[in-house]
UniProtKB/TrEMBL annotation, chain A:
Alphabetized UniProt keyword annotations: ATP-binding, Nucleotide-binding, Transport
Keyword Iron-sulfur listed: no
GO biological process: quaternary ammonium group transport
Name under which the protein is recorded: Spermidine/putrescine transport system ATP-binding protein
SMART domains for this protein: AAA
UniProt domain ABC transporter: residue ranges: 4-234
MF terms (GO), sorted A to Z: ATP binding; ATP hydrolysis activity; transmembrane transporter activity
Domain of life: Bacteria
Automatic annotation (TrEMBL), chain B:
Organism annotation: Jannaschia helgolandensis
Lipid bilayer topology: Multi-pass membrane protein
The protein's name: Spermidine/putrescine transport system permease protein
GO cellular component: plasma membrane
Source organism, top-level taxon: Bacteria
A Gene Ontology biological process term: transmembrane transport
Residue ranges of domain ABC transmembrane type-1 in the record: 66-273
Family statement drawn from the similarity comment of this UniProt entry: Belongs to the binding-protein-dependent transport system permease family. CysTW subfamily.
Keyword entries, A-Z: Cell membrane, Membrane, Transmembrane, Transmembrane helix, Transport
Pfam families tied to this protein: BPD_transp_1
Ranges that cross the membrane: 12-37, 70-91, 103-123, 153-172, 201-225, 254-274
Subcellular location: Cell membrane
């Protein structure tokens, strides 16, 4: 039985539909992320699971039982808030004991449970510290400990890394994943940061305009996006707008808007004459040669050095900038060189043009 | 800016406050304290001593008036807190952004009118020939007009009405700083409404509660117009005794003694109140977060 399932969940605020017919299944012990831009409805969905909003339609089940009519304080779903919401007037120990006391835990057992959970998050002996004495990463772990001490069926995390600086965020990503494995609890993680979702999750649901675009493993989303939105949102991609000239097998010949014809894999049911976009990852692009796609000529605009994530920026003759991955800095090009770029047609995807693009 | 200039501007900025405290608060209090220690032994003949205080201790009527004033002031403070807390909570957390300012302004409106006019407002409503009494008679609820002024209940109602604003303002400003997610976290971790109120809302609002209670208690204990006008001869309010000594009897020594005693006694009550509720000024009113 799955720890959490949503069936056709919809939420309307007046005329506006924030969440539209969303269904998901989260298997026990997995790290499930919901990834989407701000305003896509992911926070509303999480608030419905926690019980702070009531769905307009659909059902939410925890361990197979509907919780729609259960008050937030009766659901065994705990939440780490975006700004953590640690109680400033209590010390660390009291913050963690709060939930235990609400559950009517024996007074004599509380200190031991608090001590154990602090051990597990790697902060032993901080019971008497005040919240403002903790660093950002420590607060994060206390917020998780405060929930985990109650042994929830599902832990909800609402962009908890958003307030941290970059270095700490990178560190906490790994730490969160390790904590999830240590506690063997189902995590439902909400984020707009695709790298957080890709690194930590077993499954990711990509959300856009209130609905799910695709649910799959991080690799599946990256390698096999089902829509232009997913291809553009997950990972880096160069987007080349054009019109399909000819469909041959699984490949389409696309005339680019700025001129030039290229081959790419057709990824949805677009047909000849449709206005489309080609998505090519920077690492699929090659400088020079022709890998069967037809090549596009341009000039090297600049070289962006960033270690293994180094890029070559090429300004195509159409005026568009494309990023070419240059991880080992092996290409011997320099700024203003005339170059051609190409790709293997099966590593580029053609999707119908996104609205507004 | 050089160090001297910085120091000069600090002195200039501080000067109005220092003058106000020094000339209008400290100096008169020293004067009152001085007069209270002066014993009148003959015409224009004075000695120093505690005779005035001894006189006070022996006259039960004065002592009882002081206790009564303190007791009613405590009651008024508690009523203002109980009534003011939900109002403040509504303004700070439930009302929408736009109506918040309007509601706050509505609470402030009574301050536009002087104490005296407001007290007369109550008199117009509550006297024997007043609005309430006449209305009740014409509706047939009571047979003949009744006098609703000049009793303790009326005095308490009038005082609560006068001071409640000073409870609401500090409460609203502390509670406005409370993030809604604190309440949601309180529920999410299994707390009932009562638990969230008792363990999260009240502790968070504590600086405002302490500030509001101290202000309201001090204003009530030192008020004059409302108890005298609404309570009449029965009010037995301590400030009335001070007024009588200074103005009616021209006994400045006794009046000054009463003044000092009122200040000391109300300060003692505030101190006791803080001790009994386990609060201190440092962790509440002067909290730096």
């Amino acid at each position: 039985m799955n720890d959490l399932s949503c069936v056709g969940v919809t939420k309307k605020f007046g005329e506006f539909t924030a969440v539209r017919n969303v269904s998901l299944e989260v298997p026990p012990g997995s790290f499930f992320s919901i990834l989407g831009p701000s305003g896509c409805g992911k926070t509303t969905l999480m608030r419905m699971i926690a019980g702070f909003e009531t769905p307009s339609a659909g059902d939410i089940r925890i361990k197979g039982e509907s919780v729609i009519n259960l008050a937030p304080n009766k659901r065994n779903v705990k939440m780490v808030f975006q700004h953590l919401a640690l109680f400033p007037m209590m010390n660390v120990g009291e913050n963690i004991a709060y939930g235990l006391r609400c559950q009517g835990e024996q007074k004599s057992e509380i200190p031991e449970k608090v001590r154990k959970v602090l051990d597990r998050v790697g902060l032993p002996g901080v019971e008497d510290k005040r919240i403002e004495q903790l660093s950002g990463g420590q607060k994060q772990r206390i917020a998780i400990a405060r929930c985990m001490v109650l042994q929830p069926d599902v832990l909800l995390l609402d962009e908890p890394l958003g307030a941290l600086d970059l270095k700490l965020r990178e560190h906490m990503k790994i730490e969160l994943k390790q904590l999830q494995e240590r506690f063997e609890t189902t995590f439902l993680y909400i984020t707009h940061d695709q790298s957080e979702a890709l690194v930590m999750s077993d499954q990711v649901a990509v959300m856009n305009a209130g609905g799910f675009e695709q649910i799959g493993s991080p690799r599946a989303l990256y390698d096999d996006p089902v829509s232009g939105f997913v291809a553009g949102f997950v990972g880096d991609a160069n987007v080349l707008p054009g019109t399909i000239d000819e469909v041959r097998g699984g490949e389409a010949r696309v005339i680019l808007d700025g001129g030039g014809a290229v081959l790419a894999r057709l990824a949805d049911d677009s047909n000849t004459g449709d206005r489309v976009e080609i998505f090519v990852r920077p690492e699929a692009l090659r400088i020079g040669g022709d890998n069967g796609s037809g090549s596009l000529s341009g000039k090297v605009d600049s070289l962006l050095f960033n270690g293994a994530a180094s890029r070559i920026l090429v300004r195509l003759d159409t005026g568009q900038l494309v990023e070419v991955a240059d991880g080992d800095q092996a290409s011997e090009v320099s700024a203003h060189d005339a170059v051609t770029v190409s790709w293997q047609p099966d590593r580029a995807r053609v999707f119908v043009r996104r609205p507004g693009a | 800016m050089s160090r001297d200039a910085g120091r000069l501007s600090l002195i200039l900025l501080f000067a109005p406050f220092a003058l106000w405290i020094g000339l209008l608060i400290i100096l008169p209090q020293i004067g009152i304290g001085y007069i209270s220690l002066r014993e009148k032994v003959g015409i224009n003949e004075y000695e120093f001593g505690f005779k005035n205080y001894a006189d006070f201790a022996q006259a039960a009527v004065y002592r009882n008036t002081l206790f009564r004033t303190a007791w009613i002031s405590i009651l008024v403070t508690m009523l203002a807190l109980v009534l003011g807390f939900p109002i403040s909570y509504y303004i700070a957390k439930i009302a929408r952004e736009r109506s918040r300012a309007a509601l706050f302004l509505m609470c402030l409106i009574p301050l536009w009118v002087s104490d005296l006019v407001r007290a007369y407002g109550w008199i117009v409503l509550l006297r024997e020939t007043g609005v309430v009494s006449t209305a009740l008679v014409s509706m047939g609820v009571i047979n003949e007009p009744i006098e609703m002024l000049y009793n303790d209940v009326t005095v308490i109602i009038g005082l609560v009405y006068t001071v409640i604003l000073f409870m609401i303002v500090p409460l609203v400003s502390t509670m406005q700083g409370m993030d809604d997610s604190l309440l949601e976290a309180g529920f999410n971790l299994g707390g009932s409404r009562l638990t969230v109120f008792r363990r999260i809302v009240v502790p968070y609002a504590m600086p405002g509660i302490v500030a509001g209670c101290i202000i309201v208690f001090m204003i009530t204990a030192g008020s004059y117009l409302t108890p005298v006008l609404l309570g009449g001869k029965n009010s037995s309010w301590f400030t009335e005794q001070i007024y009588n000594q200074f103005i009616t009897r021209y006994n400045w020594e006794a009046g000054a003694t009463f003044g000092v005693l009122l200040l000391l006694f109300t300060s003692l009550v505030v101190w006791l109140g803080l001790r009994l509720t386990g609060q201190s000024l440092a962790t509440t009113v002067a909290k730096d977060t």
